[in-house]
Amino acid sequence: MLSVKATLDHYFKKVSRKDDHDHQSVLPTSQQEVPKHTPDSHRPQRHRKNTKPWPLIETKKTVVSGSKEGAVRRLNKASDDDDIDVVPILEKSVEEEEDFKRIVQIQKEINQAKDKNLSRLLTGHELIEYVDSNLVVSAYNDRYYLMNPSVISEEFFYQVIIHQFGQFGLLTLSEPVSLRACFCLMTQSEQELRQLQNAVIDQRDILNHQFRFSVTLDGQLESLPMLIKNYVPSVERLPLLLYNIATQVHWEVEVDRLKGLAREFALFYSIGSKMQWEQVVGLLHQNLFQVPNDMASSGYLIELDFPPQFINSHST
């Protein structure tokens, strides 16, 4: 237990990207508060262990450059920028056809649930002030808004996963991460530790094939999916990701399995700093994001009711 933090801290000291395919990779009233990113908000309930957050580690990434052949799958097919940072998708193989059909179904659900006005807001807003990972102030069309960047980025990464499914880049850990060491932060029961570890190992083929989440038979995590170029998730969330994969995913139903895993990885990749939010905002401005209509009713985007004279005085 004493060495868990120390060992996890240096797993991300050297992260390299490998690419096997040679590709480079309204609004509620102003009286409401923006809900914090909690397990009970905007997501199914799931275990949240109260552990002291660990500091982020400076990472070094070696990006293997390749050709830009092949079209990049945009989330809404609205951008022609070849320098987009989302990892490009390749043609699906015959073996992936069934999963591909399920992914297309989920893509249609995302498109049907989108709010066009909110999508324009998110893809055209200007960041005014980053308060913390649960609150930013933004402006759009002479209006000011409060937003929850953690929830918004989680939904964004969910859509990235769905639209780039099966063709992610690779983040290789400098040293394997012990599943047992991570699960020790969740429980001290030897029986539960074995059950949690076996639950992940039993699904190692699916995790590696679909998400490039490589787990060895002896319970060592070797790699993570790269969703966005030069974006490294917060290492302190890794035990929670593993725990949720072991306990929160419905493996029996294929569509539920895909959605569940996509949600867990999206939560893992959601922003935790201003720098990460600025990276996500840069992609939002490329018209990649379709805001679900329930995000407004949940209070994660709030329009501030400022008088016109206030707005005019602050825009000059």
UniProtKB/TrEMBL annotation:
InterPro entries: Mlh1_C. Residues 15-54 are annotated as: Disordered. It comes from the Eukaryota. Residues 101-273 form the DNA mismatch repair protein Mlh1 C-terminal domain. Coiled coil: none annotated. Residues 15-24, 34-43 have a biased composition (Basic and acidic residues). This is DNA mismatch repair protein Mlh1 C-terminal domain-containing protein. It comes from Rhizopus delemar (strain RA 99-880 / ATCC MYA-4621 / FGSC 9543 / NRRL 43880).
